[in-house]
Specification:
One of its GO terms (molecular function) is acyltransferase activity, transferring groups other than amino-acyl groups. This protein is α+β, with helices and mostly antiparallel strands and 174 residues long. It contains 5 helices and 7 strands.
């Protein structure tokens, strides 16, 4: 595929990231894989948390170390999506969240970008020495399930919580 590259956020991407946030809010979409972008008022607040959460020594209370990437198109430099890799799991992530979360802009969906983003993120997981990757999605999110399965995942089980059913998939890396 090679249409995307994963890039670490820096202040030079401030406008692209804030436009991404605005677009998702306007569409009422879930902003998975954005390291809490929806919940911050400013880019600077979000970027500070992103930097803190990169390392075990500075990770914020209640969170695990994680690396958030922007998926940038190689041709044109568009911000297509964002993907977050959690370096380890806590109990909540083990049950419902997993190692990886991601989102793709609405106009860019159903073009294989999520599959490519996840493929690139799995390469980063190998570098982080994560040998077995847990990825979850809502049972009704068929597109996400297809993306996960295309990257070699096997469904372990489903967990019911109220009206929500979460599917838990594992990918074993070499």
């Amino acid at each position: 595929m090679n249409r995307l590259k994963l890039v670490l956020p820096t202040p030079e991407y401030k406008n692209k990231i804030m436009d991404y946030k605005s677009e998702f809010i306007e569409n009422g979409d879930s902003m998975d894989g954005t390291a809490g972008l929806r919940n911050t008022e400013t880019f600077e607040e979000w970027y500070g948390a992103f930097c803190d959460n990169l390392k075990e020594e500075t990770v914020r209370d209640g969170l695990v170390p994680a690396t958030t990437y922007m998926a940038i198109s190689i041709d044109g430099g568009r911000l297509i999506g964002m993907i977050d890799i959690r370096h380890r799991l806590n109990d909540s992530l083990l049950n419902l969240g997993g190692h990886i979360g991601y989102s793709v802009r609405k106009p860019e969906r159903q073009q294989g970008y999520a599959t490519e983003m996840l493929e690139l993120a799995l390469i980063e997981c190998v570098k982080l020495n994560i040998k077995k990757v847990l990825i979850t999605c809502d049972k009704d999110n068929v597109a996400s399930a297809k993306t996960i399965i295309k990257n070699g995942a096997e469904l372990e089980n489903e967990i019911s919580e109220g009206n929500r059913i979460t599917q838990r998939y594992w990918i074993t890396l070499d």
